[in-house]
Amino acid sequence: MFQSLSDRLQNIFSKLKGHGKLSPSDVDEAMREIRLALLEADVNFKVVKNFVNKIKERAVGAEVLESLTPSQQVIKIVNEEMTALLGSTESKLLYASQPPTVVMLVGLQGSGKTTATAKLAHLARNQGKHPLLIAADIYRPAAIDQLIALGEENNLPVYHMDEKPEKIVETGLKEATKRALDVVIVDTAGRLHIDENMMDELVRLKKLARPHQILLVVDSMTGQDAVNLAKSFQDKLDFDGIILTKLDGDARGGAALSIREVTGRPIKFISLGEKINSLEVFHPDRMASRILGMGDVLTLIEKAQAASDSQQAEELERKIRKSEFTFEDFLSQMRQLKKMGPISQIIKMLPGMPSASGMKNLNVSDKDMVRIEAIIESMTPEERIKPAIIKGSRRERIAKGSGTSVRDVNQLLAQFNQTKKMMKKMLGMSKKMGRKGTFPF
Amino acid sequence: MLQKKKSKLLKRLRSGLSKSRTNLSYQIKNVFQREKITDEVWDDLEAILIGADIGMDATLAIVDDLKKQIKTEHIFDPGELKEFLKKELIKELNTCPNKINPSNLGDISIILMVGVNGTGKTTSIGKLAAQLRGEGKSVTLVAADTFRAAAIEQLQKWAERSGSNFIKHQRGADAAAVVFDAIQSLRAKGSGVNIVDTAGRLHTYVNLMEELKKIKRVTLREADGIPVLTLLVIDATTGQNGIVQAKAFHEALGLDGLILTKLDGTAKGGIAIAIQQQLGVPITMIGFGEEIDDMGPFKAEDFVEALLD
Ligand SMILES: Nc1nc2c(ncn2[C@@H]2O[C@H](COP(=O)(O)OP(=O)(O)OP(=O)(O)O)[C@@H](O)[C@H]2O)c(=O)[nH]1
Ligand SMILES: Nc1nc2c(ncn2[C@@H]2O[C@H](COP(=O)(O)OP(=O)(O)OP(=O)(O)O)[C@@H](O)[C@H]2O)c(=O)[nH]1
Ligand SMILES: [Mg+2]
Ligand SMILES: [Mg+2]
Questions:
Q1: 0.95 exceeded by the pTM?
Q2: For residue A224, what are the contacts with CB-CB under 8 A and spacing of at least 6?
Q3: pLDDT by residue for chain B (309 residues), tens digit each?
Q4: Whether B202 and A194 lie within 8 Å, measured CB to CB
Q5: Domain count of the fold of chain A
Q6: Which of A234, A252, A282 is the last residue of a domain?
Q7: Which end of chain B is more exposed for a tag (fewer CB within 10 A), N or C?
Q8: Burial class (CB in 10 A: 0-12, 13-18, 19+), A327
Q9: Is A170 touching B (CB cutoff 8 A)?
C-alpha cells in the first residue's frame, strides 16, 4: 500500500529523457503523487492543498540539476519546502533567568504527558538542573501514583497532595522555591480540546503558575483531527511548543506538519520510547523525510550530489565493481552512517522500512554497531584488505581481541560477503537505470 | 437503562460536533445542499471522507462505487446522495457481523485487551467490567500490564469502581504468569469473566509482540475450551497508522473485535471503517468518555450519522 513516493515519482519521470526544465504537465502529475503520499502520511487535507500549491509554483520551470534525475529534483524541492515549514532551527529547552523555570505539559488523553514530564526532568538534570515534578492530574485513576513511581525509579522529586490542581500547583511552586529547585515541570490531566470546563482549568493554572513554557504533547499517530486539537489548545492557552511522542513506531507523523502549519509553533522535542532517556531534540529535516516516506533517500541524494565529484565515490565504485571492497571501506561507510544518528532510527528512515513486516528481519542495534567496530578494529591491516585469509586461529584471535565470540566474528564475515555481493548487484542496477554517482544503498 | 445509555451516546457525539463547528462540518452541509452533483461535489465528498481518517484507499473505493451507483439509481440531488452514501456505509459496516462480543458472552469466558500505548485499554476494561457486573456476572480484572508505572494501581481502581475481583503480581513480574494464575482461579470457580489488561506496545517491537503471543498461547492452553476473546483497542484520533497497527496485532494474535475509544472528541474514527474493511474484524464497542458508563455497543447507524453529520 505504501509504495514509496520516490518510486512513484520515478515512474512518472521515467518517460522524461535527459534534463532541462520541469514542464507544467510533468509537475502536475508529480503533484498528484505528492498529494497522495502526504494524505497517507496523515497530513491534514487542507494543509496538503496549500502545501502542494506552494511546491507547484516552485517546481514549474525549475532547472533540473546535472547530477539529479527529474524525480530527484522534485523530491529535493518538496523536501526543502517541508523542512522549512517544519522549522529550520532546532529548539532547546530554554531556562528562565529567574529560577525556577516552569514548564507545563498539556494535551489529549494518553498522548504521553506524564511520561514526558519525567523525561524532560531527566533531560534538565543532565544539564545540571534540579527539577521538581508536580502531579496535577487528580482525575485519571492512579495518575499521581504513576508520576510518583516514575520519580522514585529515576530519583526525581515529585510534589503531590490531595487537593484541587490549582492548590497543588500553587503549593508545589512554593515548595520548589523553598528547596531551591530550579526547574518545575507540571503534569496535567489529559483532556479534550472541546471540554470547556477542563480547558478553563488549564487557563486558571496558566494564570497562577505563569509557566515559561507550555508544551502541547501530541501523539505522532494522530490523524486528520490534529489541526482541530492544536488550534483549540492554541486559542485557549497560546502554547509555546510541541512534544511529538511515540515516534519509535512506524507512523509517518504527518500531524507534525499539520500542527506546524496551523499554529506556527515549533516542535521542540520528540519522544522515541517509554524509557526515561528517550526524549530527543527535534530535527526538521529528519521529520520531513519521514513524512515523505522516503527516509534518507534525501540524505543519500545530497551525499550522492556532493560525492559524485569526489574521487572517493568513484574509488568506492571501482572497488565494489572489482570486488576489492574491504573491511576498511566497510568501517568507514559504517562510521559515516553512524554520524546520521542512532542506527535503529536510521533503519526506520530508509525507504520501504516503515512497515512492521520489514522491521522483523532487521535486528541491527547500536550495540551491534559497536561490536562490529570492535571486531574490525581487532583485525590486522592485511586481514582487513584480504578478509579471505581470516581462518580458524585468526578468527579466535580477533574474537579475543574484540571481546566477542568466534560466532560473532563468523557472522560478521558472512554478513560482509553478503553485503559485498549485494552492493555489486545494486550498483549494476543503478547503472542500468541511468543514475550516476548514487550510493549503493 | 439501555435507552438512557444510547441517548447519552448520541448526545455526546453530537455535543462534540456542535462545540466544534469547524470548517469541516460547515463544509459538509454545503456539499449536500448544492443543486447538482458536480465534480466539485465529488471533490468535497472525498475531502470529507479523508478528513474523517477513512484513508485514501477506502475513500477512493467508496467514491468510485458511488459514482457508478448513482447512475443506475438515477440520483441527481446531493441531498439524496448523502442518504445513499449513509445507506451504503451502514450496509458495508454491517457485512461484518459480531459473532461473540462482550454483550453476548456465555457464563464463562476470558477477554484479552490489547493495543498500542495510551489508546484506552485499561479504561475500557473498567467500563466493560461495570457493564458485565450490571448483567450479574462475576468479573475478575487481571493485571497483566506489569510494565508501566502504576498500571496495576490504575486497574485496581477500576476493579473497585466496578465491583470486580482483582488479580495481580508484582510490577515487573512475568505477564503470562499472572494470566496463568487467573485462569486457574476462574476454572476453580467454574463461571465468570476474566478481563486481562496488557501493557500498551507499539506493533513494531518484535520482542513485545512475542510476549503478547506468549500470553495468548498460555491463555488458550489453560483455557482449554473456555471462549477467549481478543479485542484491539483503537483510539479514534488515530490516522492511517491504525491500519498497520491492526494488521500487526491481527497477524500476531488473531483479533475478534475492535473497541474504538475517544469518540467524544472531534475525531471521527474513520480508520475503524478501513480496518474493518481490510481485515474483516468487526467494531464491537465504542468508548465516548472517561466515566464508567461511557461505553456502548457499536451501532453502524449512529456511527455513520456522526461521521457525516
Ligand atoms: N512507545 C512509546 N510509548 C510512549 C511514548 N511516550 C509515552 N508512551 C506510552 O504511552 C502511554 C501513555 O503515556 P502517559 O504518559 O501515561 O500519557 P498521558 O498523556 O499522561 O496520559 P493521560 O494522563 O491519561 O492523559 C504509556 O503507556 C506510555 O508508556 C513514546 O514516545 N513511545
Ligand atoms: N475522552 C476520552 N478519554 C478516554 C477514553 N478512553 C480512555 N480515555 C483516557 O485515555 C487515557 C489513557 O487511557 P488508558 O486506559 O490508561 O489507556 P491504556 O491503553 O491502558 O494505556 P497504556 O496502558 O499506557 O498503554 C486516560 O486518560 C483515559 O481516561 C474515551 O473514550 N474518551
Ligand atoms: Mg498522565
Ligand atoms: Mg493500560
A1: no
A2: A42, A44, A45, A258, B50, B51, B52, B53, B239, B267
A3: 334 444 455 555 544 433 433 444 445 557 777 778 888 888 888 988 999 999 988 899 899 989 988 888 888 888 888 888 999 899 889 887 766 677 788 899 999 999 999 999 999 999 999 999 999 999 999 999 999 999 999 999 999 999 999 999 999 999 999 999 999 999 999 999 999 999 999 999 999 999 999 999 999 999 999 999 999 999 999 999 999 999 999 999 999 999 999 999 999 999 999 999 899 999 999 999 999 999 999 999 999 988 887
A4: no
A5: 3
A6: A282
A7: N
A8: buried
A9: no
Residues 109-148 in A contacting B (C-alpha not used; CB under 8 Å): 109-112, 139-143, 145-148
Query: What is residue A266's DSSP assignment?
Result: P
Query: pLDDT tens digits, residue range A184-202?
Result: 999 999 999 999 999 999 9
Whether B237 sits inside 8 A of A108 (CB atoms) is yes
Residues in B 234-263 with any Cβ partner in A closer than 8 A: 235, 237-245, 247-248, 262
Q: Residue A9 sits in a domain of what CATH number?
A: 1.20.120.140
B-chain CB neighbours of A256 within 8 Å are none
Q: Is A251 on the interface with B (CB under 8 A)?
A: yes
Pocket of ligand 2 (CB under 6 A): A 109-110, 140, 190, 192; B 115, 117-123, 145, 148, 151, 200, 233, 261-262, 264, 287-290, 294
Tell me how long chain B is: 309
In terms of domains, do A127 and A206 share one? yes
Pocket test for ligand 2, best of B152, B290, B293 (most atoms within 8 A of CB): B290
How many Å is the maximal CA-CA distance in chain A? 74
φ, ψ of residue A397 in degrees (nearest 5): -60, -45
The residue type found at B214 is K
CA distances from B69 to A147, B73, B78, B87 (A): 55, 6, 14, 12
